[in-house]
Specification:
Length: about 450
């Protein structure tokens, strides 16, 4: 028998046995356990299966600590522990790493997990509306612009294969720093009768595209037929702020080009924004906050990172008297979050932060790669009447449960604006640098429609 076939057969029979033992939903709960999670010092080291006793009695949990100080059982420091689900759970006593293995019948490994034990961190929840301004490395392609020229209507860039969302890194070997700069390179090439070679980035890969510029009767210069921009600006929401370091996190999702490609930051800044109105969200049409940027407002910070979990940086000065919470609160880790009622903090008028009711419908700590760790639903009638639900500009609105920061609003469901996704606060904390900088011990590394904002279009002439 073919070895590969035999291996697949064994896995199939094993999965069938697990489904028979646990049931279909129990099997999915089992494989849905995260590969890695964080727990706070002082918490029980617990694996939550929520199985009936007749099922959980068939499983054992084996825990191994990276050092003897990390794990305690009944007040005694231990290096490892093998236990059943009816026994008392050990406690995470100090920062470090725990390797956890779930074993069927105490023998067959069915799930490996890494638990990072970290201190319970505290930050001040945000909720302020912010103006986000990014200047990208390279030029973003945001649309096509057909030209009327000597050969009639044409679009050389589109014909050559350029797509909306591409990032133009260089032209004829010269790094691109501005829209005017690339326009001049293309016009010069056209006047010489030579093609222009654009180096583009798409989906993390780079390639060269050769295009012959054509003369545009409307602009009286050679062009290739694109709309581009070298900057992005819009309204978002601050998620948290750490007063001692002045480190902040905001948005909860990546700022991307039209193809969802992450924008590499050349320069970036956040400022205070004042909300002037709301375009309500409806089924199939996400709404948005309408705001103005306050250059001399209470918020001024640099953007250092643009990631799947949001934007992060450092404020130039402390924020004074503009918080819903005047003291830091603990950041909840995934195992501390539960389905049920919660609150969000956001601005719907001016700069006043208000609190609104939501429900946590689902917790998905295994979705770390895409940043969608929560499914949420707006239940507050006042907020639904004002906005229709989740709208653009609400990205980054802090989610509070039991007095802890558990996450931030990130996406809206197009067909139901009252529902959407959220990112886990622990992921944002890690990405900000606060968690890994302030933690001690050995920490293992972590292996829809955007609630986004429109960018400014620039005419490629």
């Amino acid at each position: 028998m073919n070895v590969g076939f035999r291996t697949r057969l064994i896995y199939t029979l094993f999965a069938a046995a697990l489904i028979f033992l646990c049931g279909y939903h129990g099997f999915h709960a089992l494989i849905g356990l995260p590969n890695q999670q964080m727990i706070a010092v002082g918490e029980e080291v617990r694996v939550n299966l929520n199985f009936p006793d007749r099922v959980s009695d068939n499983f054992k949990v084996h825990i191994t600590a990276n050092n003897a100080r990390t794990l305690q059982y009944k007040g005694n420091e231990i290096k490892n522990k093998n236990l059943g689900f009816k026994e008392a759970w050990p406690v995470a006593a100090n920062p470090g790493t725990l390797n956890v293995q779930l074993r069927l019948f105490g023998v067959i490994p069915v799930k490996n997990m890494v638990m990072n034990v970290v201190p319970q961190h505290q930050v001040i929840p945000g909720g302020q509306s912010i103006g986000v301004m990014l200047k990208s490395k390279g030029i973003l392609v945001v649309g096509y612009s057909a030209m009327e020229g000597r050969k009639g209507q044409s679009n050389p860039a589109k014909d050559a294969g350029l797509k909306v969302g591409d990032i133009i890194v260089s032209a004829n070997g010269r790094e691109i720093n501005s829209e005017k700069g690339i326009a001049k390179i293309i016009d010069d090439a056209g006047q010489r009768g030579t093609p222009v070679v654009l180096k583009i980035k798409r989906g993390g890969r780079t390639s060269n595209v050769k295009i012959k510029p054509e003369y545009c009767d409307e602009t009286l210069r050679y062009r290739v037929g694109l709309y581009i921009r070298d900057n992005t600006a819009g309204v978002g929401t601050m998620t948290f702020y750490e007063p001692e370091s002045r480190v902040y996190g905001a948005l909860g999702h990546v700022v991307s080009s039209g193809s969802e490609q992450r924008i590499d930051i050349k320069d970036g800044r956040i400022v205070e924004a004042n909300i002037q109105g709301i375009n309500q969200g409806k089924k199939g049409h996400p709404g948005e906050k309408i705001g103005i940027f306050l250059d001399n407002g209470n918020i001024d910070g640099k953007i250092n990172k643009n990631t799947v979990y949001g934007i992060f940086g450092q404020l130039a000065k402390p924020i004074r008297g503009d918080f819903f919470y005047d003291r830091p609160v603990s950041v909840a880790y995934a195992n501390q979050i539960k389905e049920g009622p919660a609150k969000i903090l956001t601005v719907v008028n001016g700069n006043k932060i208000d609190q609104f009711d939501i429900q946590i419908l689902k917790i998905m700590p295994h979705q770390q790669a895409n940043g969608k760790g929560l499914v949420i639903k707006i239940t507050d009638k006042e907020l639904i009447d004002l906005t229709g639900g989740i709208v653009q500009g609400m990205s980054g609105s802090p989610i509070i449960q039991d007095g802890k920061l558990i996450g931030a609003v990130t996406h809206v469901f197009v067909n139901d604006p009252t529902q959407g996704y959220g990112v886990l606060a622990e992921w944002m904390l890690w990405e900000s640098g606060l968690l890994n900088e302030n933690s001690s011990g050995d920490i293992a590394e972590a292996g829809v429609i955007h609630v986004d904002f429109p960018g400014f279009l620039s005419y490629f002439n």
